[in-house]
Amino acid sequence: MRLSSGTLLDVCDNDKWLGATPGLTALLHTWTRQHEYHPHVHFIGTGGGLNERGQWVDAHPKFLVPVHALSSVFRARFRDVLREQHPDIFATICPKIWKEKQWVVHSKPVGTGEKTLAYLARYVYRVALSERAILGRDPDGRYAIRYRKSGTNEPRTMRLEPQEFIRRFLQHVLPSGFRKIRYFGLHHSSKRPVLRSLQAAMAIRAGRPLPVPPPAVEPARPACPNCHTPMVFEGRGSANPRAILFPAATQTRGPP
Questions:
Q1: CA triple 188-193-197, angle to 5 deg
Q2: What does the DSSP assignment read for 179-217?
Q3: 3-class state of residue 37 by DSSP
Q4: What is the DSSP secondary structure assignment for residue 226, as one 8-state letter?
């Protein structure tokens, strides 16, 4: 995700293409329709960006940046990183992959982005194999899995041995703490004031009311399980038992 987002931001920053920084939201997706391992990243971005002079630059109506330029840069960077960090894997790849094979980066306009966000939202907390896709178990022990064929969207059924069924499920389990949704460019949290200013300027230009951020909701205080009285936070204790038994021994000692 770091490599793909950095490539996209750098190509957008090039004056030859967009010459500005867009807002990008990335979502990691790891499976195909047949639940094979196929890691790829979906990006939804703004239809333009903010240049160095603080001016908004509209992108081309049909694309953010040319996909051919983006594909070439991403292929070269992916090759260099793989060769540096995983030389053993790099040695097993045919050299034609880096020279003769054309890498494809798909890009298309999505209007306001509402439908695309709704589509990507289904993958945020969704697992690779849902209960509805598991039709049952055959008498020979294989599991029947429902899926839709790419291109035609026709419903199909595949049958997997138990070991293969478990393998396809577990290969999509992400490491603990891994964030499958990330924000870059103008969508990064550090750019939130800039993004709000842009939203206000666009609202004024379009003759719409200024966007008002939703009020902050104070979380409900936990209640005592016995008397049900709201509890008040007084302080945080230490998880170090030595700090509880011998508080003086854990104090930071100043220089002599």
A1: 115
A2: -SEEEEETTSGGGHHHHHHHHHHHHHHHTPPPP-PPPPP
A3: strand
A4: T
163 and 187 in a single domain? The answer is: no
In a domain, residue 82? The reply is yes
Q: Output the six-digit token pair for 184.
A: 């870059």
pTM of the entire predicted model: 0.69
What range does the domain containing 139 cover? 130-171
Q: pLDDT tens digits, residue range 152-178?
A: 778 888 888 888 888 888 888 888 888
> Quick one: 54 and 134 in the same domain?
no
pLDDT of residue 148: 82
Each residue's pLDDT tens digit, 189-206: 888 888 888 888 888 887
d(CA 33, CA 160): 14
CA dihedral 136, 142, 144, 145 (to 10 degrees): 120
Q: Which DSSP helix (H) or strand (E) runs through 219? A: none
Q: What is the pLDDT of residue 206?
A: 78
- Do 93 and 63 fall into the same domain? yes
The end-to-end CA distance of the chain, in Å, is 49
Residue 187 resides in a domain:
yes
- Residues facing 45 on adjacent strands: 24
Q: Helix, strand, or coil here: 142?
A: coil
Question: Residue 256: inside a domain, yes or no?
Answer: no
> In Å, what is the CA distance from 105 to each residue of 1, 20, 46, 47, 102?
14, 20, 17, 17, 10
C-alpha–C-alpha distance, residues 256 and 254, integer Å: 7
